[in-house]
Amino acid sequence: MRASCSLLLLTLSGCFKAGEVVIVDRATVLEQEAAGSYPELEHALSRAEVAPRPVPLTPAQLEALGIEPPALVDHTNLTDADAADALLVEHCIGEGKDGLLAEALQSCRQEGDRDETDRLIERINRARRQLWRWMQSERPDVPLPDIQRAWQKIHAEGVVCGGWRQRADGGWEAKQC
Question: Using CA atoms, how far apart are residues 58 and 69, in angstroms rounded to an integer?
Fold first, then answer.
């Protein structure tokens, strides 16, 4: 029996092997104390690291370089009414005494796209004529010129301050507020 136990131990001893030894390079407590800890300096160095980024320039510096500074207002979502108000204030278009928009390029204070201005005037005037026809269909007893005059009178009150409008004598003036 002893022989069988020794044989068993001998065969089992081949299954056992020593675990892996991992050597960790770590400073001792004494070495850590001697090296010191400098969190403020480490933080300052991490903030001052080199990072590629654009150089901030003021609007005046951009203009000096010939670059127009970016607009403070996003103009991507302007409606026709917003664009018309801007052109009315710049005196590029005017509110005619007949209730329709008209070009007033001779008094325009800014350069713009004339074709785009013409398309804007056409769109707004078409919408106004459609509105007047609808109003007349609702009140067929009132002639279209009367509807147009009544609408123009009320609309003139809502024209943007400084907007170009036609006087009764045919001349143009800026609306005073």
Answer: 9
- Taking CA 96 as the corner, what is the angle to CA 93 and CA 98, rounded to the nearest 5 degrees? 150
Measured at the alpha carbon of residue 142, what is the angle toward residues 138 and 145, in degrees to the nearest 5?
110
Cα separation, 90 vs 86, in Å, equals 6
The span from the CA of 143 to the CA of 135, in Å, is: 10
- Which runs of E-coded beta strand occur in the chain? 93-95, 101-103, 164-166, 172-174
Contacts of 14 (CB under 8 A, 6+ apart): none
Cα 97 from chain centre: 37
Per-residue pLDDT at 82: 87
pLDDT tens by residue, 133-144:
999 999 999 999
The encoded tokens of residue 39 equal 């969190």
pTM of the full predicted structure? 0.56
Query: What strand order describes the sheet that includes 172-174?
Result: 101-103, 93-95, 164-166, 172-174
Specify whether the CB–CB gap between 72 and 143 falls below 8 A.
no
CB 165 within 8 A of CB 150: no
Separation between Cα atoms, residue 159 and residue 118, nearest integer Å: 19
User: Which residue shows structure tokens 């370089």?
Assistant: 65
